[in-house]
Amino acid sequence: MLVIGLTGSIGMGKSTIAGRLRELGLPVCDADALVHELYEGLAVAPVEAAFPGCTRDGRVDRSRLSAELLKDPSGFKRLEAIVHPLVHEAERECLQAAARSGATMAVLEHPLLFEADKARRCDVTLVVSAPAEVQRARVLERPGMTPEKLEMILARQLPDTEKRRQATFVVDSGVALEETLAQVDRIVVELQGRSGRAFAEHWS
Description:
Elements: E1 2-7, H1 14-23, E2 28-30, H2 31-38, H3 44-50, E3 55-56, E4 59-60, H4 62-71, H5 75-100, E5 105-109, E6 124-129, H6 132-140, H7 147-155, H8 160-166, E7 169-172, H9 177-191, H10 198-203
């Protein structure tokens, strides 16, 4: 099974591309969705211990946790030490399920694919990219987003230029949607029949 790493900085359109890959029949292991599940389960107790008051009603309160991290960005390292191992195990289970289902390709969707050392655990990487001004406009339209929050998020991510440099494929999401999706379709066709080693080496 070929493991495709999908990433892109905030606001680049990664979720849209993941949706297209699902439409094309590829299983997608979405790290963000896995974090949401963990924030209602296994991560709750350790997050509360590390960030008292940042859970409520048996789940992590993301807005409280975000406010805490905005005040003290050094807390990211504590949070990552809790969440990253849990996410990694959930990703392993997801990819193993895809392999059992007979999938020839599966997608590992992760916002920090390069930063969290996930790219080397994939056979190919796909980076979604758009001009900086398009990215900023998209992100600042989101409810609750502020320029300060955006800067905090971007500070934790590799610059887009570096992601593009490291990528196997780059999808330009700064053009018309139909053109963006056509790029994805062409990449999937190109990858069909290609064998991979990453699953056996890192996930099986």
